[in-house]
Amino acid sequence: MNPTHTHRYARVLTIAGSDSGGGAGIQADLKTFAALGCYGMSAITALTAQNTRGVQAIHAVPAAFLQAQIESVMDDIGVDAVKIGMLHTPEVARVVAWALDRYQPAHVVFDPVMVATSGDRLIAEDTLAVLVSEVFPRSSLITPNLDEAAWLLGQALTDPTALQARAHDLLAMGARAVLLKGGHMPGAVVVDWLARPDAQALHWASPRIESANVHGTGCTLSSAIAAHLALGHGLEQAVTLARAYVLQAIESGAKVQTGQGHGPLNHGYAPHASHLTVL
Question: Which domains does the chain have, with CATH numbers?
Answer without folding.
Answer: 10-263 (3.40.1190.20)
